[in-house]
Amino acid sequence: MARKNVLPPLPLGAILDDSGARFAVHSATAEGVDVVLSTTWGAERVVPLDRSGDRWSAYVPGVRAGQRYALRASGPHAPRRGLCFDAGRPLIDPWTRAIDGGWSVVVDGAFDWQGDRRPATPRERTVIYETHVRGLTRRHPAVPAALRGTYRGMAHEAVIAEFLDLGVTAVELLPVAEFVPEDDVVARGRTNYWGYCPIGYFAPHAAYAAGGAGGAQVSEFKEMVRAYHAAGLEVLVDVVYNHTAEGGHGSRTLAFRGLDNPSYYRATIGNAGAYDDVTGCGNTLDARSPIVQRLILESLRYWVTEMHVDGFRFDLAATLGRLDDGFDPAAPLLHLIGEDPVLAGVHLIAEPWDTGPGGYAVGRFPQPWAEWNGEFRDDVREFWRGRGATSDVARSLAGSEPMFATTGRGPLASVNFVTAHDGFTLRDLVSYDHKHNLANGEANRDGNDHNRSWNSGCEGETSDVAIIDVRRRRASSLLATMFLSAGVPMLVAGDERWRTQGGNNNGYCHDSPLAWLDWSDTSESAVAMRALVRRLTALRRSAPELARDTFLGTDDVCWLSADGVQMGHDWWQGHHVSSLGVLLQDRLLVLMQADDGDCWFTLPPRIAADPFSSLLDTSVPGGEPPSGIASGVIRVPGWSVLVFERQRSA
Questions:
Q1: Which residues are catalytic?
Q2: What is residue 28's predicted lDDT score, i.e. its pLDDT?
Q3: Which of 361, 393, 526, 637 has the most crowded CB, counting CB atoms within 10 A?
């Protein structure tokens, strides 16, 4: 049987041409839809849209770029049936390319890319730097005041030079799609600084534009990407396709709820009037719905083709794979994204969990997805707390094979991190036993509080030199373990500058110095951490053993105890051994001591026969190793990582 040609769906949104614009919107349940044009004299022009199936559209002559518009939809207001129409309420177009003061904006997407080319950095060479557009440059002394906290501030040559100096290859931005803070957060006198409350999936956040919100945000975002690509840096964006800013029932109606609530949101089984909230944000986008799938796929393609981004981190990505009975790695949407030809070759990184039943899905995503490896984070933290099974940290160093091999993926499916935007900073991680979130206005109830027993009763800032040194060593060793492990390392903005939030592990609502980078900190600790990160990225670039796309086999790795015994899996399974040695491909030697006391490593005779030159020592600020050659017996100071390069005898 001959295969039928399937025509692509007609476009949605405001489609501009030389004579005007066609406005098109989806709604399966509305009885009428209008487009409302804002005029320069403050009046409104209302144009009814014609219906064809679930698509409503009309051509309006004379419309130009910059035209502000809204939608209005009429139909039953029956919340118990999941219908929330209000014919008098202006709504944002879900397909709009820009938003200005609650209005959708018609955008001319023309832009001179000047021959822009993607860096296409191989994943095994990728080092990710997670940051916030506003917070990165809000206090940067070299960025002009008018550009701080904007896309143009991000594109400043001093900022790009810093990334190149650090040795990162990809800059991952917290949400840049248009978002609005929740009403209850605003009522507490705060805001949603991080941006995980989206309302416009095609629209760059207007507040990050230096030149105003009438469409400048689109061109300024493109300018930023063009500047980063010219420097060889990739740009990744954090996308939030699990919920919207509209919240639950009784909350505000901004777009989706007022246009076609049943098509966009997931309802509780047997109750069309109740949201199935597996995100903790009041509602859940329904990944089973064809229009939601179309919204997600078309917006992803738009950010790749029109905005030239190099990949995505998907917030609460388990929601994208939820079918009727929970998360399913074979869910259609996950495969549609992974197999889309436009998205081929870009980074697809899942945060592999949500808050619903069975929502912790680390290791369960299909190819070609990569994942934030929460198991790596937890295992490495436990090891450097002086607890946890040594086999767990060994598994993490080797690329987390038990998690990713079952889905046919290699170690590069693992995005390795020890801190993220959500949680303690690196400095606070090793300095606080408990969260200190009172400033959030939620009586310290928000944020996880499982960061106990790092500091033996001495929490927070201290002048004790010995305690400060132990914290620095632990923090340095956490970073070293991450950079020495198979997978893709991710560094969080400010950790390289010893940034603190005073123990606040949930800074989502603070657009203030609490959350911004302090570029003026020239303390010894801040300088040392930057030097350490530079050393670690340089080491990773120079060592092919660390840039692997396959798991470590028995011929690739030798696990060593402190007394020189080659350890097998059964030797340390389920037990914590503070001293661990790893010889990678008979060349790179890594020695770890996760305890207060020093350890003397005795190398096996076949290894000790050759001298070793030192590459890294995290007991020293900045990680700079002593000069000279080591062999035979090597001292590893407490809470430290040492790395050596084997010098083969002639």
A1: 315, 351
A2: 97
A3: 393
